[in-house]
Amino acid sequence: MKYRDLIDSATNGHGADYCEVRIEETDSSRLIYRGKSLETIAQTSGLGGNVRAVTKGGWGFASFNSLDDLKTKVGDAVAQSKAVGGSKTEIGEADPHVDVVPAHIVHDPADVSLDEKKRIMDHYNDLVWSVDGINSADIIYGDSSRKTFFGSSDGSYIEQEQVHVISRISAQARRGSDVQQAGFSLGSQGDFDLIRDLDQQVVDAAKRAVALLDAKSLDGGERTVILDPVLAGVFVHEAFGHLSEGDNVYENDKLKEIMYMGRKFGGKHLNFTDGAAIPGLRGSFKYDDEGTPATRTALVREGELVGRLHSRETAAKLGEQPTGNARAIGYNFPPIVRMTNTIIEPGEATLEDLLEGVEDGVYVRNWYGGMTQHEMFTFSSGEAYMIRNGEIQEAVRPVMLTGNLFETLKNLDGIGNDLGMNQGGGCGKGGQSPLPVSNGSPHVRIQNCLISGA
Question: Is the pLDDT of residue 368 over 90?
Fold first, then answer.
């Protein structure tokens, strides 16, 4: 195994309660278009790593770009841990593993030349500008390969590779000071074919942006709202998932009060999970960045809080079990508790069932962004359509959804049977962004949801 002897030698006699080394090899390519021009085209490779050590509850961290004198870096991290430690080391139990995990590959982007990638994205940029009324465009393509080599004083040694492909295509239309946009994001683990054959989606997005200039804005107020799987997935990730992360809970007394085990959030149709042990999704892997095996963690079962997400440290501090959710975006960061694939599990309703009886509502699709502060949230939809007498009708301008998470979950009265996964985004936390994740949901219906014009 490539770096095992090096890591074992460097950590021999480390002197801490626990020590780990992570080495990374990375390769990536990226194209960015602003307006009609290709602004950035790049291929990069990197090598680096880090050491983490804990002594009497104090953590030390040292990163490096050279493998020369790795033992010195181990000594630096151990010295830091001893300088700040003064209590008791608490890390959850995890069996040691020795394993080599190849990348999940469907069509490896490394087998496609940079010229071919540029040709495809040039074509999409031309398609955006072929639509009358387009004023600007933003197009991003990226792919990356990350090979990690992890060894710990517990006896684990794991080699693991992940390959990701992402693309974002957005078109903007302007009339005077009025600017409207439409677009979509895509992502996959190990499948370059994701970005092929998107002509119709690109043209449709550009036409939607132009059409929104003539669409009306809705007055603010409470309405029945139906969310598509993309926006509902973002909702469960942002509004609920971050509240389930163990470090957020144990560091915040308010979250301890509102996110206690057994709390009821809504009806028995509410079931949320998060886990990397779902093959092929962007948030999937076999081991997290502490060498803990991936799991699939039940967060809410039949409306009741039953679990949360953990690193080894947060699991010990809260008296629970590690869940394999310790993740770092790169070797220059320590792993922290992060989501993987966060899902509202399907119910039994069809979309037609959810629409039935809605006399004056809004159907919202896709998303542009949002923010949360504890249990309060605000999200912007990418698209919005009127619902009248149980039917989806004309497009209106995108809307913002605002509310209290717990009140909203009580008003979430319908869950569809049509689970869809959103893999086009990335998660940010603690200065580490964008971390590969996915989120998903069926269509869901929320009563008395507060909306306003975006």
Answer: no
What pTM does this model have? 0.95
How many of the other CB atoms lie within 10 Å of CB of 323?
A: 29
Q: Break the chain into its structural domains and give their ranges.
A: 4-214, 221-453
Bridge partners (DSSP) listed for residue 54? 18, 59
| Helices 199-211 and 114-129: angle between axes, nearest 10 degrees | 30
Please state, in angstroms and as integers, the Cα–Cα distance from residue 9 to each residue in 15, 385, 415, following that order.
13, 62, 54
Q: Which residues contact 378 (CB under 8 A, 6 or more apart)?
A: 370, 371, 372, 400, 401, 402
Mean pLDDT of 322-351: 97
| Residue 68: pLDDT over 90 | yes
Q: Please give the backbone phi and psi of residue 111, each rounded to the nearest 5 degrees, phi first.
A: -85, 0
Q: Is residue 370 pLDDT above 90, yes or no?
A: no
pLDDT exceeds 90 at position 91: yes
Helical pair 4-11 and 70-84, crossing angle rounded to 10 deg: 40
Contacts of 139 (CB under 8 A, 6+ apart): 31, 32, 33, 121, 124, 125, 128, 167, 168, 169, 170
CB atoms within 10 A of CB 352: 10
Neighbours of 393 (CB within 10 A): 11
Contacts of 40 (CB under 8 A, 6+ apart): 30, 31, 32
Place 373 in a pLDDT band, splitting at 50, 70 and 90: confident
Which one-letter amino acid corresponds to residue 208?
R
Q: Does the N-terminal peptide bond of residue 346 adopt cis geometry, omega within 30 degrees of 0? A: no
Tell me the C-alpha distance between 188 and 422, whole Å: 10
At residue 390's C-alpha, the angle toward residues 388 and 394, to 5°, is 40
Q: What is the fold of 4-214?
A: PmbA/TldD fold (3.30.2290)
User: Cα angle at 104 between 103 and 107, to 5 degrees?
Assistant: 105
